[in-house]
Amino acid sequence: MLIDHTNKRVLDVLQGREKDLIVNYLRQNKDGLFAGLKEVTCDMWDAYGNATIEVFGGKVRVTIDRFHVMKNFQEQLTEARRAIQRGLSKEAAKELKGTRWLWQTNPENLSDEQRQQLQGLKERFPKLEQLVEQRESLRAIFEDTTIKDAASGASRLQAWMGQAKAVGLKALDRFCKTLTNWLDKIANYFVWRSSNGRTEGFNHGLRAILWRAFGMLNFRHFRLRVLDRFGQPAKA
């Protein structure tokens, strides 16, 4: 699915996400639909960024959306919690059972009672507390509006990785490897702070179409339904 963030609409829906398919589509529309394209925001799927670079070269900035960066971190946090839980006694493991939401929710979205519960768990499981602290410091970097260019953003993220690796958890090491592999595109976020949040909203809308139709086997019909519903520019 391709989104026009400026006009808040779905531009098109492709039948696959293979690089060749995306390259062909971008080339066909390079001088028309995408004539004014300046930036592409996407997740960490190689084909999206590589296809954009192949067609537009350095004229278009490729940005990895911060939502997907933080999502990847949350997945590693969950893996770390499970690994720690496996090494505990049965009684201690019960304390962590069903606490995933507490560990993954931003502190400002927790109630006072939930914060107290989480604080107790942090004191009981200091390694998990370190993970949460690293997540919050990473989130603070993305929310720091004094960072205004990719180079400064990359520098801050590299400094964060140095601290994260010192914790000595495999989950953080894996995340730092991902961050390193995609650092240039992740750091591009700090230039215009573009977000793919709207894309996630449209994804929900597409799934709703499929739910209501109990699935659609004809892609052409599905595409037309999506463009009819979400393809018009949003009204001012």
Jot down its keywords.
236 residues; mainly alpha; 64% helix; 6% strand
Would you mind describing this structure in some detail?
Helix content is 64%, strand content 6%. The mean pLDDT is 94. It contains 13 helices and four strands. The strands form two sheets. Strands 1-2 form a two-stranded antiparallel sheet. A two-stranded parallel sheet has the order 3-4. It has 236 residues and is mainly alpha-helical. The longest helix has 21 residues, at 66-86. α6 packs across α7. The protein has helices at 19-29, 46-56, 66-86, 90-96, 100-104, 112-124, 126-142, 150-166, 170-181, 183-187, 189-192, 197-212, 219-230; strands at residues 2-4, 9-12, 39-42, 61-64. It has two domains: 2-65 and 194-230, no CATH class; 66-185, no CATH class. The protein starts with a strand and ends in a 6-residue tail after the last helix.
